[in-house]
Each structure stands twice: as structure tokens, then as C-alpha cells.
Amino acid sequence: MTVGLLIMVYKGKNWAKIISIVLFSLGLLGALIALGTLETPFINKVPLLVMIFVYSMAIYHFGFAKSFKEFFKYQNSETGIKETFQDSKQLMESEKFWKIIETTKSKSLGDYENQQSELEKELSKLTANEVLEFDNKFRTLRGEVYNWNFWAAAYIINGGCSDDCFSDFRGWLIGQGQLIYENAIKNIETLTELKETNDGDWEGLSYIATDVYEKKTGNDMPQGIQENFEITGEEWEEDENDLKKRFPKLYTKFGME
To answer: Which of 126, 133, 167, 252 is the most exposed place for a label (fewest CB within 10 A)?
Structure first.
């Protein structure tokens, strides 16, 4: 029975942890009473001292040790009941969405890989449905800048940019925050104010919500909203002179590097 109980504790069962602490406490109490009442040579009390030590350590470890709490939390998150899932086309409110983005950017201190980790932490605090609403908003914003001007910016900054690269660029751009994103919509050449472009490595941020959702529900993320895949604006030629003429500030800062 003891072994089975400890296995359940290992699997993250809270009831098993509580029962274990109760049993250890009763064992500790019994050992203390025996130690104080038995009239026997000290050497014969050594097993009782060992029991007191073992039970005390077990109670501390299961009930108070930070390392065990973290382990138990991890086990419980992996084995616990998954959240229910359902499709939704609801968008997260803009204020809430951008607050999450700004929080992750601030905590990561400009490091893009760290920002991905911070976004995972922030989204993990939400319900599965809220994660879907976040992703709906993210993909809506990404679709809004499916525009030839933004593709030109990505092309100039990176020295070339494929379809996948452009999708990653737009996700990365959202991660730069509301001000940079909205200013770029008004005037694409405000992107010259960017101090860091992560050397064109823009992949990652777009997939965090999907990963978090799957961990929460054990299922693939539903379709949600239909992202815009109809590119807008005036197409440009993959020619140095055309890009330089249309986007002189962008080309001066990034095209000459």
C-alpha cells in the first residue's frame, strides 16, 4: 500500500500527497511517544530516532520543500485533467492583447528567443479559450499587414525574403509592440527606427499560442478565424533600383548593409 501511495504522489495526485502527510505525521507522533515512554537502553531507541528523522524529513519534503512543490506542480500539469476545447472566432481585446505583447518584450530585454519563452509563460496563465482568442487576434493582425510594402521591408532588411520568411517577419513585427506595428501601417519607412532586427531570424513567435493550446487541451488548436491571405498594395520588382526608388529610407539603412 505504501509503495502504491508513493507512486500516486509521484504522478501528481494531491489526495495521495495529503494521505501521505497524515500517515507520516501519525508515524512521527507514535515514534515520539514511544521514545519518551519506553524504559529501555538508549541503543534500543536508535530505530525510533531514525523513524523520527525519516518521518520528519518526509513531512517537510511533501508539505513544505520548494523543490517538491515545483516538481508536484509540473507532474500535475502534465497528468491533470485537460481543459475542454471548442472552436471560436472571437478576438482578444486589443488592449489585453498588446499588454501581453509589451510584457513579453519588456521582460525579455529585447532578446527574441527570450520573448518567445516569456510569451509561453504569459499564455499559460490564460484559459485555453483565451489562448485561442489571442491567436485569432495575432493572425488577424498578421493578415492586416499582408501587404507588398511590408514584404518589401522584409526583403530589404533581410536581403531577400520568401513566403515563409515574410510570414515569420509579420509575426516578429507584431512582437515589437503596438506603436511600431501601427506606425508602420501609416508609413512603412518608420521601420528605419528599428534598432534590432534579430538578423532576419524571425521564426518562432507565431507558433507559441498553438503549442500552449495543445498542452492545455491535449488537442490541436481549432481553425478559429480565417486569416487574410489576399495580398494588398502595389507589387514591386526584385530589382535594386526599384526598391531603392520606392523605399529610399529603408534601402539606405538596410539595403546598403
So the answer is: 252
> pTM of the full predicted structure?
0.68
> CA–CA separation, 208 vs 119, rounded Å?
7
**Closest alpha carbon to 206 in 178, 162, 167:** 167
> CB burial class (10 A; 0-12, 13-18, 19+) of residue 131?
buried
As given in the structure block, the three cell numbers for residue 190 are 518608420
- In tens, the pLDDT along 2-42 reads 656 566 666 667 777 788 787 778 877 777 787 778 777 77
Residue at 107: amino acid letter? K
Residue that the C-alpha cell 512603412 belongs to: 188
